[in-house]
Amino acid sequence: MNPTEYEHEPIRGLPGDLPPGERILWQGAPDWRTFARSALHTRWIGLYFALIAAVAAVGGSMGGMLAAVVSASAIFGLLSLFAVMVARTTVYTITNRRVVLRIGVALNTCVNLPLALIGSAELREQGAGFGDIALVPTAPHGLGYAMLWPHARPFRFSRAEPMLRAVPEAKAVADILALACAAITRVSREEMPARKSATLPSREVPA
Fold first, then answer.
1. Which tens digits make up the pLDDT trace of 30-67?
2. Domain range holding 69?
């Protein structure tokens, strides 16, 4: 990673300065080892190559066993390198108004998801305090699965769900997010009568 790549960020992990009234509640990044295990499935891959090596050894094919070990080492090396790069280039940010995902190893992008659009946050614990937090939007958001991957909930292709991957102290992070979403919902309800009484300009909505 180029150390100057993110020097343009006024605040780490954010594309611009925070507007008045917005504050950061939490920032973090994936743990690369947990990410490799949970997102890249290194355990299953290791089991697969171990099975191939065992079959080759039982069949007396030392060449086959050696090929399996070499292949496994190469693949594990590439997956570990990718996991490290993801951890170094990713910043997850929760503010009192939105969740921001600064993601992308080769091509950097920032995904802004307002808290008002998050219907629920589902925690999947990965052990040792780490976990994945899937954000379930309440409305279409235009974020494609390919653009979000690997920061996307698996197999939700038609309506991709952003996911905070392998975050430390995941339970505490999920609680922070839940409280922030609850606060936004409460404020929105309190402001609803004022919004109803306001005079809005008419605008034609396409069918």
1. 999 999 999 999 999 999 999 998 998 888 888 888 99
2. 23-191
CATH assignment of the domain containing 95: 2.30.29
> 114: how many CB neighbours lie within 10 A of its CB?
12
Spatial distance between the Cα atoms of 101 and 164, rounded to a whole number of angstroms: 8
Q: Is residue 78 part of a domain?
A: yes
Asked, for residue 53, whether it belongs to a domain, the answer is yes
Tokens of 26: 């939490």
Q: Model pTM?
A: 0.83
Q: Output the pLDDT for position 143.
A: 83
pLDDT, tens digit, 9 for 90 and up, residues 74-90: 999 999 999 999 999 99
Q: Which parts of 71-117 are beta strand (E)?
A: 91-95, 98-103, 109-114
Query: Is the Cβ–Cβ distance between 174 and 121 less than 8 Å?
Result: yes
Number of domains in the chain: 1
Q: How many CB atoms lie within 10 A of CB 39?
A: 23
Is residue 45 domain-resident?
A: yes
- Asked if the structure places residue 111 within a domain, the reply is yes
* Distance (Å) of CA 103 to CA 48, 153, 182, 201: 30, 15, 26, 38
50 Rama class: left (phi>0) / alpha (psi -120 to 50) / beta:
alpha
